[in-house]
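Homework help board

Subject: predicted structure for assignment chain

Our instructor gave us this sequence and asked us to write out the predicted structure in token form, then describe one feature. I got the tokens but I'm not sure how to describe them. Can anyone check?
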Amino acid sequence: MEKRKRKKRTSGNLATALARADQFAYNYQSPPGLDTQLVDEISGAKNEPPWMRQLRQKALKIFQKQKMPPWAPSLQDLNFQNLRYYLRPLPQASLSWDEVPPALKRTFEKIGLPRAEQEILAGVKAQFDSEVIYGSLRQELAQQGVIFLSMEEGLQQYPELVQQYFARLVPPADNKMAALNTAVWSGGSFIYVPPGVKVKRPLQVYFRINSESAGQFERTLIIVDREAELHYIEGCSAPLFSRASLHAAVVEIFVHKGAKMQYTTIQNWYKNVFNLVTKRARVEEGAVMRWLDGNLGSRLTMKYPCCLLAGAGARGETLSLSWAGEGQHQDLGAKMIHLAPQTRSRIISKSVSKEGGRCSYRGLIQINPGAHQARAKVVCDALLLDSFSRSDTYPVNRINESDSIFEHEATVSQVGAEQIHYLQSRGLTAEEAESLLVSGFLEPIIKEIPLEYAVELNRLIELEMEGSVG
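My token output:
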């Protein structure tokens, strides 16, 4: 199947609107490079307690010594000393949309944040480079005790609660990127849902890298107390630059007894971004944790959401969709660690590769001794749209309890000329036929995404499909 020159993308959609950097002056930009002085400067600017400053400095030392794992994709084009680690667009976050400067408003209006806030969301945060610049929460939720703050606000207003949970699931020594995030984190979300409170509408955060050779290092901490429920959505984007940028986030989620949590990610980074994140949840007795992940764009993504199934009857699920085009590598997967009896886990991964792109599934299932009657299932499906794209599967399965069930299945398929020809005989063009086949392949994941976001994700996939049939 030959490559054909890609059509020019039309305006009026999310991908095109976010392709350009928005121009405005920063209040502060750190010089390129990372050292102890910059770490202290970030901590001082945020007026942090001594324990956080000490943790940052400890993490910096770990980052400087620790290496990437030998199996990791190459980062040779990412120079850590060329990055700027802290960019401040505003002196403080705004709680009123009217107070947000026009240049920033235009960026977030492109993705429909004000409309989404009014119509379907319970609360919104918007982060521009290193700082959260806008936030809101519906009054009725605040009255029920729901906390939805930036990570800095959470640390200032609830220091004891933050200290109790911060870096407990993802300590600095967990991996090199976790150490970097802990050293220079800025922005992100702090959420607490009290016992029994069910947040019926999603909370959303949108992350935007708007500068060349910059890093974004948000830190998210979510605590869903007993019998509570929450759905959290994050969206990510960056404009196209010639030099690399880095997104290295850390997410820690505590799902207490009987609680339910869903974390949905729709990302559309451009190909200059290295997206290297660590996401982990601890799931207690009878609780449910669900990761729903849509990944388009980026030069390289490494992401493996994890569930520690720590309580009897805990359930974990990861539904992942990835798309890799020319020059892209999506190295994705999930980890399910069964620590208690009668725990359940499910991983469903769907990937599409085209124009020489590469998708990898890298997963871990671990059933510990004593996790009686645990059950785990992995389904990993890959679709290749040409003969020179690539798909890899790297499963690691450690089953240490005989009284358990584990299932694993994987398929790799390629869109064939016969399929295209058959659909053409029914009146479709070649491009329409291939688009229909791809949509059918991804449908089990897309149908799980809230309607408003599924529509936009389908639009993004349609744009990626343009010109794929020669």
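Reply (TA_rk): Your tokens look well-formed. For the description, you could write something like this. The chain has two domains: 14-303, 417-470. That's the kind of observation they're looking for.
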